[in-house]
Amino acid sequence: STLGLLGQKDANFASPVSMSLFSKISSSLEDHDGDDDNVADISTRRLFLDTSKAALISSLPFLLQTEPASAVMANDSKEARVFSAGEALGVKESMARFVQAKKEVQYLSENFDDIVKNGGGDNVRRYLGTVGVTSAMYGIQKVTKELQEEADDIVEYTESKQEFEAALRAADTACYSANFVEFSSAKTKPEKFFADAKLETTKMLEAMDIMAAQLKL
User: Fold this and answer.
1) What are φ and ψ of residue 165, in 5° steps?
2) pLDDT digit string (tens) for 62-90?
3) How far apart are CA 193 and CA 200, in angstroms?
4) Whole-prediction pTM
5) Do 125 and 105 form a contact (C-beta atoms < 8 A)?
6) pLDDT (mean) for 18-32
7) Tell me: the pLDDT tens digits for 87-101?
8) How far apart are CA 203 and CA 199, in angstroms?
9) At what angle are helices 190-214 and 91-110 packed, to 10 degrees?
10) CA triplet 186, 190, 193: central angle to 5 degrees?
């Protein structure tokens, strides 16, 4: 089955909701595999199924979202509240949110190895704000965009913002790759991906320091 293409570790990472959705879509595709009336030509039907399954598997970063780890990253401060897409934060709240996010990255940078040991790549991604909503880093690009006009030097701020976002994407990708590399034919070890992610976390912090200086934080 399509679900069988996932390793057991992948299934362990997934939330019950995402795995249920994955199973339903997979079953639908497999039921279609035996329905000659829907696609008369066998080769065309096979191509359709292979393409559909490939598209489904490529969406794993979104389907295999883990449940928020509030016990790991409990944060009751008003600055860390979850906000919705399209919501205007305002300068004051964005400033507070940025400060909280910077502390999150500082902690991640200083405790990276322990964070990996206690939960692997997805534990790091929780601190990055790309898994769950409990980190102050969640939605950080919205925050940095909100503050762009507040910078003393908007050019320097924007350049640092872009460097920060590039490092965030790279760190997230490396940690995601580390989760699944042992099930692939790739020769790269998880340790290499984690080392790359750790380096990118340092770059994130350096960029945030410059941005903070531009915002007088």
Assistant:
1) -65, -35
2) 444 433 333 233 344 444 455 555 566 78
3) 11
4) 0.62
5) no
6) 47
7) 667 899 999 999 999
8) 6
9) 140
10) 95
